[in-house]
Amino acid sequence: MKSRPATLRSDVTNELATASRKMRTGFDALVRTRGLTLARARALMLLARHPGISQTELAGLLEIENPTVVRLLDGLEKQGLIRRTPAETDRRG
Protein backbone atom coordinates (compact mmCIF):
# COMPACT_ATOMS: atom_id res chain seq x y z
CA MET A 1 0.00 0.00 0.00
CA LYS A 2 1.36 3.42 -0.96
CA SER A 3 1.88 6.08 1.65
CA ARG A 4 -0.18 9.26 1.44
CA PRO A 5 2.73 11.48 0.20
CA ALA A 6 3.61 8.94 -2.52
CA THR A 7 -0.02 8.79 -3.64
CA LEU A 8 -0.23 12.59 -3.65
CA ARG A 9 2.96 12.84 -5.75
CA SER A 10 1.56 10.28 -8.17
CA ASP A 11 -1.74 12.17 -8.41
CA VAL A 12 0.01 15.50 -9.02
CA THR A 13 2.25 13.93 -11.66
CA ASN A 14 -0.75 12.44 -13.45
CA GLU A 15 -2.64 15.74 -13.34
CA LEU A 16 0.37 17.63 -14.74
CA ALA A 17 0.75 15.08 -17.54
CA THR A 18 -2.94 15.39 -18.39
CA ALA A 19 -2.78 19.19 -18.38
CA SER A 20 0.31 19.11 -20.58
CA ARG A 21 -1.38 16.82 -23.12
CA LYS A 22 -4.47 19.04 -23.21
CA MET A 23 -2.39 22.19 -23.70
CA ARG A 24 -0.39 20.57 -26.48
CA THR A 25 -3.55 19.32 -28.21
CA GLY A 26 -5.13 22.77 -27.99
CA PHE A 27 -2.01 24.53 -29.23
CA ASP A 28 -1.63 22.02 -32.07
CA ALA A 29 -5.22 22.65 -33.18
CA LEU A 30 -4.67 26.42 -33.03
CA VAL A 31 -1.51 26.41 -35.14
CA ARG A 32 -3.12 24.05 -37.65
CA THR A 33 -5.74 26.73 -38.34
CA ARG A 34 -2.81 28.93 -39.40
CA GLY A 35 -1.40 26.26 -41.73
CA LEU A 36 1.41 25.29 -39.37
CA THR A 37 2.57 22.20 -37.59
CA LEU A 38 3.47 22.29 -33.93
CA ALA A 39 7.16 21.93 -34.84
CA ARG A 40 7.03 24.85 -37.30
CA ALA A 41 5.20 27.02 -34.77
CA ARG A 42 7.81 26.28 -32.11
CA ALA A 43 10.57 27.15 -34.57
CA LEU A 44 8.85 30.44 -35.48
CA MET A 45 8.50 31.38 -31.81
CA LEU A 46 12.19 30.71 -31.19
CA LEU A 47 13.21 32.63 -34.32
CA ALA A 48 11.16 35.60 -33.10
CA ARG A 49 12.86 35.47 -29.69
CA HIS A 50 16.36 34.99 -31.12
CA PRO A 51 16.76 37.02 -34.34
CA GLY A 52 19.78 35.95 -36.38
CA ILE A 53 20.10 32.58 -34.65
CA SER A 54 22.00 29.93 -36.59
CA GLN A 55 20.41 26.68 -37.74
CA THR A 56 22.70 24.78 -35.36
CA GLU A 57 21.63 26.95 -32.41
CA LEU A 58 17.98 26.52 -33.37
CA ALA A 59 18.45 22.75 -33.54
CA GLY A 60 19.87 22.84 -30.01
CA LEU A 61 16.96 24.86 -28.65
CA LEU A 62 14.44 22.59 -30.36
CA GLU A 63 16.42 19.51 -29.27
CA ILE A 64 16.40 18.07 -32.79
CA GLU A 65 19.08 17.18 -35.34
CA ASN A 66 20.38 19.70 -37.90
CA PRO A 67 18.88 17.91 -40.95
CA THR A 68 15.46 18.08 -39.28
CA VAL A 69 15.88 21.83 -38.73
CA VAL A 70 16.77 22.25 -42.39
CA ARG A 71 13.51 20.53 -43.41
CA LEU A 72 11.55 22.64 -40.92
CA LEU A 73 13.06 25.85 -42.24
CA ASP A 74 12.57 24.74 -45.84
CA GLY A 75 8.85 24.39 -45.09
CA LEU A 76 8.63 27.77 -43.36
CA GLU A 77 10.49 29.42 -46.22
CA LYS A 78 8.19 27.77 -48.78
CA GLN A 79 5.20 29.16 -46.84
CA GLY A 80 6.78 32.61 -47.04
CA LEU A 81 7.07 32.87 -43.25
CA ILE A 82 10.85 33.20 -43.06
CA ARG A 83 13.72 34.30 -45.24
CA ARG A 84 17.13 32.74 -44.70
CA THR A 85 20.26 34.78 -45.14
CA PRO A 86 23.81 33.42 -45.09
CA ALA A 87 25.92 34.33 -42.09
CA GLU A 88 28.70 36.79 -42.84
CA THR A 89 31.18 34.20 -41.58
CA ASP A 90 29.83 31.51 -43.94
CA ARG A 91 32.30 31.17 -46.81
CA ARG A 92 30.13 28.79 -48.82
CA GLY A 93 28.64 30.13 -52.07
From TrEMBL:
Keywords: DNA-binding, Transcription, Transcription regulation
GO biological process: response to stress
Any Pfam family hit: MarR
Listed InterPro entries: HTH_MarR-typ, MarR/SlyA-like, WH-like_DNA-bd_sf, WH_DNA-bd_sf
Entry's Gene Ontology molecular function annotations: DNA binding; DNA-binding transcription factor activity
Ranges for domain HTH marR-type: 9-93
Domain of life: Bacteria
Name this polypeptide is given: MarR family transcriptional regulator
